[in-house]
Design a protein that fits this description.
two-stranded parallel sheet, 9 strands, globular, single chain, 6 helices, seven-stranded mixed sheet
């Protein structure tokens, strides 16, 4: 029997420093049909965009929700993976195909933005990487993967991102497989939700 996720078409949305490892984690198991990522500043190198182009993956620099909706309609991916995006996608768009989000925090705690920074500023003993289905609402939806990471006494934001990116690289493809196979995941406890804002 053919695996429903075999050869699946995946669109990756990645604005920030997590996109490169997400792309690396997806390329060997799926047909990545595009990367949504703003163009780098003049003279600036961008690992994610360079890796995409070297593997024949088109890079789409327009990142607005309307542009993403048009891409989903045109490319018809089996799944959309979001790894660092600063907008909330509409319920209508989320109903077109499965959407997975990679969130560097122990959801339902630390929904919102700048989660790695706030974990350090707040003196947390640990943070996490969470991969969840996207549902209407801020970082809502069932959890398909979560791994906690201890925060060392001399931890930096950059070092913590490196560690979380490595986990993402190995965890993202299995999470997409679970999603496409219809595994339900674990519901978030809304009563435990906390929220962060931009610094």
């Amino acid at each position: 029997m053919r695996d429903v996720a075999e050869g699946a078409r995946v669109l990756l949305i990645g604005q920030g420093p997590t996109a490169a490892s997400a792309l690396q984690g997806l390329l060997d198991g799926f047909l990545v049909v595009g990367l949504v990522r703003p163009a780098p500043a003049d003279g600036e190198r961008d690992e994610a965009s360079e890796a995409s182009r070297s593997r024949g993956v088109p890079v789409h620099a327009e990142t607005s929700p309307d542009s993403i909706e048009l891409l989903v309609e045109t490319l018809r991916p089996d799944c959309v993976v979001v790894s660092s995006y600063d907008r909330i996608l509409s319920p209508g768009l989320l109903s077109r195909c499965p959407f997975l989000n990679v969130h560097y925090a122990p959801l339902p705690r630390y929904r919102g933005r700048a989660n790695v920074n706030w974990a350090l500023l707040n003196g947390e003993a640990e943070t996490a990487i969470t991969i969840h289905r996207l549902a209407p609402g801020l970082d809502a939806g069932e959890i398909l993967f979560q791994e906690r990471v201890r925060i060392g006494p001399r931890e930096t934001v950059g070092g913590l991102y490196e560690r979380l990116n490595e986990i993402q690289r190995s965890a993202i493809a299995p999470a997409v497989h679970r999603c496409l196979r219809g595994e339900p995941g674990e519901a978030q406890r809304e009563e435990d939700a906390t929220y962060g804002s931009s610094r």
